[in-house]
Automatic annotation (TrEMBL):
SUPFAM superfamilies: NusB-like, S-adenosyl-L-methionine-dependent methyltransferases. One of its GO terms (biological process) is regulation of DNA-templated transcription. Keywords: Methyltransferase, RNA-binding, S-adenosyl-L-methionine, Transferase. Residues 1-31 are annotated as: Disordered. Belongs to the class I-like SAM-binding methyltransferase superfamily. RsmB/NOP family. It holds the Pfam family Methyltr_RsmB-F. This is rRNA small subunit methyltransferase B. Signal peptide: none annotated. GO terms for molecular function: RNA binding; RNA methyltransferase activity. Residues 1-13, 20-31 have a biased composition (Basic and acidic residues).
Length: 520
């Protein structure tokens, strides 16, 4: 080492080490299976979220676009399907899979995913899985991995299925076959039945719902009305139930987002639209719409035809973070009623900042975002339309968050339903006659949906009118029948005091939307 080298080294010291130095010492990984295994182990060890961790690990690796897609499917698919794979691995290994070393279990789950859901030929799945075991210091388990993988690939998946169906009680079979915790299977069955969707013991619709949870969801985009046009988003296709929605089957959403285009599930779009489009029986709190306002709204677009609001209303989104619905509400309000004011509330500071960012990006930086309790904001009563997108179990969005089904427990329900009830009661307390409330969850669980609405109606007899959400949305250009066409399932359920959307019927997350109006 020359004197100059030494000086350079001294100057840089440890803190001054260039970012690439680490990369130079440790070659970037070029194996998608090894990258996926690392992510899966980290997700498990640190309760991390795969959708946050994976992009970081992909950025550190050196993978072709094809291998990045392969690693992505390996991670998400293996997490989703782990219950099925554990059952089959246990049968093939003739031992409890929980007694295998963690890494060996992940290696086998990865192998199972390749052969059962990724169309990797059997021999390649076996060889690559054994290779992965050897490369990751699990040589001693290579024999077991080889034997288990051979038993998995040598049998037809239909044979495995027949064996499971024969051996397991009905709910346990569904739980294993569709890789959901058993309590979630039961909760979804109850939710479908409450929506009038399970005649007799027909499991067909329940299985269709479970299957929809297991499919990789297509990216849903929203083109905020008045700001962006869904027909001009590069590479996007139509086909969502939302009048502002588009699908991005291929490509990186980051390449098309911005300037009023955002990633947002079509069910969320429809939920925000329902509040905006509900008939404006709300007494105007300031001046009525001027002729100039009305002229400013170009006729013909979905947004213009759909908002039922009257002028100068005050709209509030009380559970706003991260701001997807707030941005759409602001766009809908601005398009139809420039005089209406929109405000947001989100108690968690970093999520409140995300709401501000979402609003600023869409050109609504002037929308105030408070950091308080939604219960207080609602009880204060300074609003004409309130969106309560309540914290919930998220059982309606399992397809988007692969690990969430394994982390939720029935115990989560108690806290969440208590808060949901307080939010609804505060809305009743704060609402003036004619004020509108949209109560929304991204869960179909009956305790979070219809029972909440039944409960608030019982606690405040005569105070609320339940609007027909499906009819409001139909007037707003949402064609539920077209969305359900070809699925073999009814476009709208029956009996619920609100609209329940379903992934297997409408292609949306399972959002529940109930529109309520305060009576005099
Ligand atoms: C389902 S998320 C809302 C999603 C959001 N509306 C959107 O579309 O982007 C529920 C939000 O409620 C917030 N929250 C939790 N407790 C709350 C409370 N007491 N009052 C109001 N909001 C609350 C959570 O922090 C979370 O951001």
């Amino acid at each position: 080492m020359t004197h100059d080298d030494r000086r350079r080294g001294d100057r840089r010291g440890d803190r001054g080490r260039r970012p690439h130095d680490r990369d130079r010492r440790r070659p970037r990984d070029t194996d998608p299976r090894r990258v996926a295994l690392g992510v899966l182990e980290e997700v498990e060890a640190h309760d991390a979220y795969a959708n946050l961790l994976l992009p970081a690990r992909l950025a550190e690796a050196d993978l072709s676009p094809r291998d990045r897609a392969f690693a992505t499917e390996l991670v998400y698919g293996t997490i989703r399907w782990q219950r099925l794979y554990d059952e089959l691995i246990g049968r093939a290994a003739r031992r409890d899979p929980d007694r295998l070393a963690r890494r060996v279990r992940w290696i086998l789950r990865l192998g199972a995913h390749q052969t059962l859901h990724m169309r990797v030929p059997g021999h390649a799945a076996v060889n690559e899985t054994v290779r992965l075991a050897r490369q990751t210091r699990e040589d001693r388990a290579a024999g077991l991995v080889n034997a288990v993988m051979h038993r998995l690939v040598d049998r037809d998946p239909a044979d495995w299925d027949a064996e499971l169906r024969r051996d397991l009680p009905a709910d346990r079979y569904l739980s294993v076959r569709w890789s959901h915790p058993e309590w979630i299977v039961r909760a979804l069955r109850r939710a479908l039945a409450a929506d009038g969707r399970l005649p007799g013991d027909d499991a067909r619709e329940l299985e269709a719902l479970l299957a929809a949870d297991d499919a990789a969801p297509v990216v849903n985009l929203v083109a905020l009305p008045g700001i962006a046009d869904r027909d001009t988003i590069p590479g996007a296709e139509s086909g969502t139930v939302s009048p502002f929605g588009a699908l991005l089957a291929h490509g990186d959403p980051a390449d098309v987002c911005g300037h009023g285009v955002r990633v947002q599930d079509a069910g969320s779009q429809v939920a925000a639209l329902a509040l905006a489009a509900a008939p404006g029986d709300v007494p105007a709190t300031a001046s009525a719409a001027t002729a100039a306002d009305r002229d400013a709204t170009a006729p013909g677009s979905a947004a213009d035809q759909t908002c039922g609001a009257t002028a100068s209303e005050r709209w509030i989104d009380v559970c706003a973070g991260p701001g997807g619905k707030t941005a759409l509400l602001a766009a809908l309000a601005a398009r139809r009623q420039p005089d209406a004011s929109v405000a947001a509330n989100e108690p968690v500071p970093h999520r409140a900042q995300l709401v501000r960012d979402a609003l600023a990006e869409a050109g609504f930086a002037d929308v105030p975002v408070a950091e308080g309790d939604g219960v207080t904001a609602l009880a204060a009563g300074e609003w004409d339309r309130a969106l309560i997108d309540a914290p919930c179990t998220g059982l309606g969005a399992l397809r988007r968050r692969p690990e969430s089904r394994w982390r939720k427990t029935p115990a989560d329900l108690a806290t969440l339903t208590g808060l949901q009830r307080r939010l609804l009661d505060a809305a009743v307390a704060g609402a003036h006659p004619g004020a509108l409330i949209a109560y929304i969850t991204c869960s179909p669980h009956v305790a979070e949906t219809r029972r909440q609405i039944e409960g608030v109606l019982e606690r405040h007899p005569g105070a609320l009118e339940v609007l027909d959400t499906a009819a409001v949305l139909a007037d707003a250009g949402v064609d539920l029948a077209a969305a359900a066409a070809g699925t073999g399932f009814a476009p709208v359920g029956t009996g619920a005091p609100g609209l329940q959307l379903w992934p297997h019927v409408h292609g949306t997350d399972a959002m529940f939307i109930s529109l309520l109006r305060r009576r005099a």
